[in-house]
Every structure is written in structure tokens, then in C-alpha cells.
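Page 37, top half.
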Amino acid sequence: MRSTRATALTALAAATGLVLTACGSDSGGSGGGDAAAGAPDGPVSMIVPFSAGGGSDLAGRALASGLEEATGDTVTVENVTGGSGAVGYGQLLAASGDANTLLASETSLVTLPVLQDVPFTYDSFTPIMKAGEDYNLVIVNSDSDWQTCTDVVDAARSDSLTAAVSGTTSPDAIAWTLIEQEQGIELDRVPFESTAEVTAALLGNQIDVAAASPGEVVGQLESGDIKALCALAPERYEYPELADIPTGGEEGIDVTFAQWRGLIAPPDISDETKQYWIDAATQWTESQSYTDYIESNYLQPQTLFGDEFGDYLTQYDTDVRSALGQ
């Protein structure tokens, strides 16, 4: 009798173990049971709404790698170009409710609906994380005679001057608009799809001046192929490679415009999925890989998550509309 009871208990324990193992295997790649609530049910697509090589692409790949590290999910970057980012955002809009789709977002999320007729606004999507922010540098070819941002403004008063924009609603396009308004000048804008294309055009003397975030052009600055005339920032950068670049305000151009990098999800995802991605993003910001991304791209680690990020976007939208007189 004792032997029969022991056998029965052993069988029960084995069956219980199988049940627990089965429950634990449904983890979505980030843990078992309740910890995986809202997890994606397969590989995740990280949309980058611009071409490879620019700041958005760098952010998207860092985000994808960081989320993989935090969750164990497979996150694949997908560059979806066109319409100054509108095509990529449109694809995210069409993925309503999908836990397996994310987008590496930036300033055009707000500026696109302000300046163009698109079927979404910033609050059409689910805010997950603001990863950091930076300010544009005004740059020229190293052969240029211009030494300051004031030189550029003075040249634009008397001559036609070509200024690149990486998309009609990009941070550099907004910055040029603010400079035009403050200084009473008009620039001949040449649109490109990415900062990588802008830099190539500048090096090829196809344009006169451009504006770009530091992380996108620091290599060309260090090689001496281009030079930075000023930073459109409230204070000088503290990074040693950028510390000698004066602010626009130091040269009489009182224009600053922050651009941010972040992560958004489609509309109408579940609360559990929203929290799943917020938790994963938070975990990434506590890792060395996040620190490496921030420092290698010369960003400021200004993070916000979920609804706090949403509040930031609301204020940013108000500031953009005010700056553009809308």
C-alpha cells in the first residue's frame, strides 16, 4: 500500500511539473506567467520611417538591440521610407492593436501633422519612451569661407543660399524656419530623405549649408571634411569633441530647437502590451548598451515613459505650432 501511494505521488508530481513547464514556456521571450502579460506572440518589427544611415536609423537599431536584450524577443529593423516619414507612420497606424509592431520615432511625429495633410497626429499612437534629445549643428564643407553662423546669415541677405533639409518637416527644417523668421532672411531649401544624403551633398558641394545632429556628423567633423559653425542649443555641448562649438546665441542667432528620439507603438494596443514595452524600455535605459548609445550619438539622456512621454508630446506640439505661428 505504501509503495502504491508513493507511485501515485510521484506520478502527480510529474504531471504537476509538466503543467508548470507548459505554463512557463508561454513567456513571449521575457519571463513566465504574469510577467509576460501583453508580450508579442512572435518576431517584432521595428519600423524606422527613414532610410538607413541617419540618426533615426541609428536610434532604431539601438532600440531594437536594447529591447532584444531586455526581453529575449526577436526585433527586426524595417526601413520604411517616403513622405518625410509619413509612409512609415502610416504603416504603424495600419497596425492598430498589434503587439508585434513598434516604431523608432522622432520629431516628425509632431511636425508632420502640423505642416502636412496626413491621416494621423502625434496622439494617434501609443507613447512608450522618450530615449533622449539633442540640438542641431549648423555645418558647412571644410572648404567654405564661412567661419560663423553670422557669416551664413549675412550671405543669405545678399545672395541665394542653398540649405539642405532632411525632410520638409524635419528638425533642421523647423530650425531653418525659426532662423528665417528671426533674421529676416530666406533660404533656398533642397530636400533630402536623410541626413546621410545631406552630408554626401554637402561634401560634394551640391549645397551651401546644412544642419544636423552631432551624432550624425561627428565622424566628418573629426576627419576635417566638414566644420560646425554653431550649435542651435541653449548651452554648449559638454562632450569634448563638441565643447569648442559656440551656440547660435553667442553669435546673435537666438534660436534653439530640441529634437528627440523615442519609441511608440500602434494605436489600440492592450494596456498589458503597453506596459510590457514600457517595462522593457525602462530596463534598457538601465543597461550599459543604453549609455553607450547615448554617448556615442552625443545625446542628452532625457527619458520619459508612457503617459509622461505623451504629456511631453502634447507640450512639444504646442511649442512647434507657436514657433510656426499656427
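Page 37, bottom half:
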Amino acid sequence: MKFKFVWVGKTRNADWKALQDEYLRRLSHFVKSEIVEVRDAQGVGQAELEGNDLLAKLNHSPFVVLLDVNGRKISSHELSAELEKWQNRGLREVAFIIGGAKGVSPGVAERADFKLSLSFLTFTHEMARVILIEQLYRAFTIIKGFPYQK
């Protein structure tokens, strides 16, 4: 299985970038991963422009997870169970999308196979990236029975 993280904009803050890279390194023990960034759009139709770029970067990803404030709110253990289901289905690639400041276009929302909310709270995009990758790493440690999760 491979994870593709597709998001709008770069992680500019050095501290968040370091955490992102650290959890990607840890996650690489379980799954191949790549990050694909699309440019921030500006002005009228921002979400639609970014949405077109996001959809173009998905290629033919068989399974798309959209981080969405209205998505399913699940625990770390429930996320690990979802990952196991995806593995058992034989999914070769799972793409995770984090939209821009104006959200995502209807086309991106429709393309999502699974909508995930990280919390009832709101996070910056840079925080959400780190939290997502850390939670995926945590899910694999739960699956494998490693002592990371508490």
C-alpha cells in the first residue's frame, strides 16, 4: 500500500515541517508515502481552481480520503481498523486530501470515498498535516502491536 498526501500550499513553518518530516520517516517503516503540493489560488473561484489542481494530482488513485470538518470523527483505534479494512481490500494507494483556506470544490468532495474529521476543533493546515501523518503512524503501531500508542 502507498499513501499519497495531496494538499494545498507548502508547509512553511520550519517547526511544523520538521514534525511532518519526522512522522513521515516513522510512517515509512509501514507504508510508502509521497507528498504532492498544489499551489494556493487567489481571488474569485479559489476553491474551484485549487480543486481542479487537486483532482489532477490524484491521477487514478483508487481510494480518496478527504479531511473535512463534517467528516467522520473516529478514534485512533477506529482509524487503525479502517486502515486494516483498506489493506484487506487490497488497496494499492490511498490519497489523503487537505484543501485550502476556502475548503474544497464540490468536485473534490464528490470524489472522496471517505471523509475524515480530525477533531471537533479547528487546526491550521500545517497542524492538520502533522496530526494526520502522526495518527496514521499511530494506527500502524496499533495494528502491529508496537508500544507507541497509549
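Margin note: The longest strand covers residues 63-73.
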